[in-house]
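Hi V.,

Quick status before I head out on leave. The structure for the redesign project is tokenized and pasted below; the design run finished overnight.
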């Protein structure tokens, strides 16, 4: 599945995740979020940067529980699954955050 961002072609896998996470930019995240009806704020981007940090440290896209624990450590105790569901307008927190952060789909996501 391919998607176009300006004149550059974004290569996405069958699940809508970037094929190469190094292609990620905040602008690409914004384009991907807009397809979900979401406009990313600086707070959203801080969360996505933290998700990328998890990936760089551990080498895989996190499932929800380790993701929440990591985000609480990185960004403070105000992070919760319910808050992320509301902020990102999704019931699939780990998968949505991984996709918007340019990462592969977490292994345990359907």
């Amino acid at each position: 599945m391919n998607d176009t961002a300006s004149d550059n072609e974004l290569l996405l896998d069958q699940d809508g995740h970037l094929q190469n996470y190094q292609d990620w930019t905040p602008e690409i995240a914004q384009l991907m979020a807009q397809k979900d009806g979401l406009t990313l704020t600086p707070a959203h981007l801080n969360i996505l940067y933290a998700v990328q940090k998890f990936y760089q440290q551990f080498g895989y896209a996190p499932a929800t529980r380790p993701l929440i624990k990591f985000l609480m450590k990185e960004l403070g105790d105000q992070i919760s699954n319910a808050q992320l569901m509301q902020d990102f307008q999704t019931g699939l927190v780990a998968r949505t955050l991984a996709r918007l952060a340019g990462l592969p789909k977490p292994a345990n996501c359907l």
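Above is the designed sequence. Residues 4-101 form one domain.

G. will cover questions while I'm gone.

Best,
W.
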